[in-house]
Design goal:
The chain is mostly helical. It has 20 helices and four strands. The chain has helices spanning about 5-25, 30-40, 45-50, 50-70, 75-90, 100-110, 115-125, 130-160, 175-185, 190-200, 220-230, 230-265, 270-300, 305-320, 330-345, 350-360, 365-395, 400-420, 425-435, 445-450, and strands spanning about 165-170, 175, 210, 215.
Amino acid sequence: MKSPRYAWYVVTVLMLAYVSSFVDRQILALLVKPIKRDFGLSDTQMSLLMGLSFAVFYTLLGIPIGRLADTRNRRGIITVGITLWSLMTALCGLTNTYIQLFLARMGVGVGEAALTPAAYSMISDYFPKERLSFALSVYSMGIYIGSGLSLVIAGLSLQLVSVQEVWTLPLVGTIFPWQLVFFVVGLPGLLIALLIRLTVREPERKELDVHAGQGVEVVSFGEVRRYIGANLNSFLSISLGMAFIAMAGYGATAWVPSAFERVFGWSQAKTGLSYGLLITIFSTAGIITGGRLGDRYRRQGRTDAPLRVGMIAGLGLLLSAPLFAFMPTAELALISLIPTAFFISFAQGAAAAGIQQMMPNRMRGLASAVFFFILNLIALGFGPTAVALLTDYVFQDEKLVRYSIMVVCATGGGLAFLSQYLGRAAYRRSLNYLETYQRPSRQTPEERVAEE
């Protein structure tokens, strides 16, 4: 019998790792100006560093790593991943060209691909279904705490290290102040890897599938593919819904700091502290509220709870996103971002629980990886770059970046609402499919569902 207190300890430590990953991932948002200056880059080139360079290996490697999470020790996978992304973040501080920085960011993506599929699978084995949305919401708080802290830490670090135009470090040589920031945020992750290695236990897998009268220890990749294919409408509804919301989130987090600098003349330190704290407070409040609402819906018998929460998030984002573009002062612009920050995070925990709840245990790691493949291909691959392309080629004025942010966020919210509204009935059918699949029988799941 697992101790509830220890289960929450595991969630907290994994959430701390998620915070570290998002600090390392999002740190570039406040370093746009110095990196553009020193490397001579455009907004579009910077957006590729923030999105595509990271997303390529993060999405591609997520699937084989998710497969490992279904069959191997998940704690070990996470420990190796944290160690790798922490070292690669520090390596970003040693780069001297755009290509070198691009490749180092790819390495960060490789490491971070190991965390969430394994973490989702572990947490699902520590908590009952009726508390899973909230537990995964607490873990996913790391996204927004990390995103906010990355801006705060970057702003304060730049303010401290910029007292000198260049720094000379032993064994490293001469580097710019922004390069030193990568050392400050990257290396502490090694301590988190050690903490997980020493204090987190691999949980026993529960609800193992029973198929054809035998317990299944290893499910083939083909069977996972067929299972997802049989439930494709519901799987895509959740995945695309969350992807469109995350596209808005990544686009906003990447470019809102630049908007405050360009439009209102705020310093990097002031922007990082103000916007970083706003994300940390209100996006954290959003994901906790959405997670609790998802669990309440499930207790009330609303089996399509994850999609209901996602619809609220999409509609809230659609309505709140335009406010930022039309505020006359920096202070009002900052206030206008509060509901956007709240709704961007609102559905994350419920969506994660929705994927876990519709999949058999031995398929959850791989299913989570496919979920994140879809999510990050759209969100990371297009979010920051869509904003930059609109700024460079449609509005053609870097001071109009806030209008680009508005278009991407409102579009993401509208598409998210539509995707999850259309998927509710399919998701309810998927839960029935799972119950039938897990019964001992010599019939295929399709045959059993057809009979009923």
